[in-house]
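Regression check, zinc ion case 215:
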Amino acid sequence: MQIETEGILINIQPFSERDAIAHIFTRDNGVLVGMLRGGTVARKNKPLVGQVGSVSWNARLDSQLGVFHWEAEKNLAVPMMMNNDLLNIMNAVFALIYTLVPERESYENLYLRTFDLLRGVANCENPFDLYLGWELGLLKDLGYALDLTKCSGCGKTSDLIYLSPKTGRAVCADCGEPYRDKLYKLPLTLSVTKRFITGICNMQNVDVPNARKIF
Ligand SMILES: [Zn+2]
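Current build output:
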């Protein structure tokens, strides 16, 4: 099996003295895992997390660990290197994809939004707002969309001040009043989306990535 597409290098770990195991989030085929030969010792063209480039991935059998050929075109992490907030955002994005997005399933919208986030976050006034939007998209793509457009009780679109932890749907002030202690408060914050992410991690039996725990 051979795949040729473009992607973002989201994780790389030494496998042996020379080789590395990489996770590349691709536009057409979702997350691919494979070996980068010489990836641990490369001096020139060293593979680095945050690079975007063209990738080919080969596996003789579907069950085998594939082998990558990786041509980095640009490192999207470079504008973030001097800013801890931006680095934390990038690390959270990569850790969540690494942890929650299944291998070899296409998530093209998520790929495009991730690419836009990484390209735009360094020049944006409120990077955490941009990140929150990305996380809402992630929840949606994983099948846990939050609905903030109308009250799940009566359908009205104003006075939406609560969010139900169970359904992920907004609740208006009147409908929510009897349950106010059990509902999350709107507007949405990263501590609320973190609770939904924690719920998904629990269902999948994986730990919430450390990179997402810090905000
Ligand atoms: Zn209502």
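Comparison notes: The longest strand covers residues 2-14. The mean pLDDT is 95. No diff flagged against the previous build.
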